[in-house]
Batch of 2 targets.
Target 1
Amino acid sequence: MDQDELKRAAARAAIEHVLDREVVGVGTGSTANFFIDELARIRERIRGAVASSERSRRRLEARGIEVFDLDAVGELSVYVDGADEINRAMHMIKGGGGALTREKIVAAVSHKFVCIADESKMVGSLGRFPLPLEVIPMALGHVCKEVARIGGRGVLRQGFVTDNGNLIVDVHGLEILDPPAVETRFNQIVGVVTNGLFALRPADVCLLATMAGVQTIIAAT
Ligand code: 5RP
């Protein structure tokens, strides 16, 4: 199986977590795209979806799935999304696709976060994948200085503007030993809208696609 087949297998397994007649939270990225395709097969069973990006909104609508604004729904039973890295505590780095802020909002109102990933995403400790920050444009210089003070190296993602009209700074060189503390620290930088650590609200379950099948992993205590 290649990586795309693994992503598709994880996405297919997530359908078991979707409840009938509910609105489903849908993430962003290539794994989430496979999930959208699987969701389209059962679209008669669900009310619709809330999308974490305009890209996912368009893909959902193109497959005949109604997309609701979050405020029209309030809370969600389940949110399904990919990750750039995930550890055994279900802490994640997300935002490789630049949708981290809306992803964090949808995760915050969801009772269950199902992370779908291929086995390359499972790591012992987070930080090899650069940590994305969504940054208000006028704060770019200030944010990069603060990132350096914390010990990281901020690199502006060239030619990229988020759905919210902001920039992405990818932070390289971090060793993230205490993900909730690091998430809190980056949130304190003025001008940072969100950072891509999902540790304060981790996933509840990870469906990890391996060559031996899809494993269901819950947080190690
Ligand atoms: C987008 C994300 C994605 O979930 C993350 O980048 C994983 O993407 P992919 O499924 O393409 O590997 O956080 O902002």
Note: Residues 27-31, 81-84, 94-100, 103 surround ribulose-5-phosphate (CB under 6 Å).
Target 2
Amino acid sequence: MNNFEFYNPVKIIFGKDQLKKLPLQIPSGQKIMMIYGGGSIKKNGIYTQVLSALRDYQVIEFGGIEPNPHYETAMKAVEIIKKENVGFLLAVGGGSVIDATKFIAAATLYNAGDPWDILAKNTVVKASLPIGTVLTLPATGSEMNMGSVITRKSTNEKFSFLTPFSFPKFSILMPEAAASLPQRQVANGIVDAYVHVIEQYLTYPSNAPLQDRFAESILLTLIEEGPKVYLNSADYNAMVNLMWCATMALNGTISCGVSGDWSVHMIGHELTAFYEIDHARTLAIVLPGIWKALRNEKKEKLLQYANRVWNIVDGSDDEKIDKAIQKTVDFFESLEIPTKLSSYNLDTNAVNRIVDRFEERKWKAIGDRQLITLEVVRKALEFQL
Ligand code: NZQ
Ligand code: ZN
């Protein structure tokens, strides 16, 4: 096991009727900006409930955060915050709203130049406004981590940044609010959480049996509970489990002492940036391709995954790996998430465009043990044509 530090200060408030605790989490006298997306919270009543809980505060609103949130929109919020002297940001929605809020919080206090550098050049963030979140969509884990992913619309670039200043002070996780999710978003959430686990687990053995079993237990729970939520997002008993799985998948616990991969996400982000394919859907395309391209390098973990997650015990090693890849593809496709580029009318031009962009950025190799060279990126995507 590698040396590690673990720090996660996010207070989680989970379950039914928890919004009444919202005012207890924010220091009194703060001027709050409530940040939300395209209006789902107005349709399902969460908007009214949040405003009612905050009736003793001065609240201004900033709606219209897009899925795959735009830098351009976030910067409009920064302007208003500076003018209005806002002291606390409350994100209400899914991962995009939370990610945008993290960026807005950092960009407001950034005084080392252009805030875009935080994303494009990974410049150091030295402070952020405090944020809290009300989560309505289980998927990204953003509610309990320090990551954020932002898209610059004008250049079709999608970058992430990480800073401990982005940890929310608290997150209220609302499985009931997620009852209004359309099937497509539920499916996206299941697959995003699944691939988050895989990116931290399926590399190589590193003497971390506890982290491995944590990871496998999240995968098994997603396989068990995910389809129930997919069939009925109002199934509260299943939704609580999906929501907690998604949070646990990316709050730092399973990555302690092990090295990760994240190449599936890095390649997937390009598919979203160029072709606006939903985040999780890009992962479902790229993951099987990476496994096919690196089946030897990832062999031991692929076999462990085949055995412990899919109970595959018969056949040669190669056959077991093939079966595990197929089981994973079948799981994604059972949620109506395609795994081929052709399902999005993409061909080798898309492969070239992504490889060219990595080349322009001078990325020689990414991911697990820096195994994912440009050749591997090409090969992985070609498997998925
Ligand atoms: O915008 P509104 O109207 O709220 O509608 C949203 C949006 O259209 C809707 N929605 C959310 N809660 C709902 C609901 N509709 C009905 N009922 C509800 N209760 O769902 C749509 C998608 O929302 P979005 O926030 O975009 O989805 P998700 O949570 O999957 O977030 C995706 C973004 O997170 C990033 C992705 O790259 C993408 O930009 N990620 C962030 C990560 C992180 N910060 O750690 C890690 C992930 O790997 C990921 O990259
Ligand atoms: Zn993801």
Note: The two ends are 37 Å apart (CA to CA).
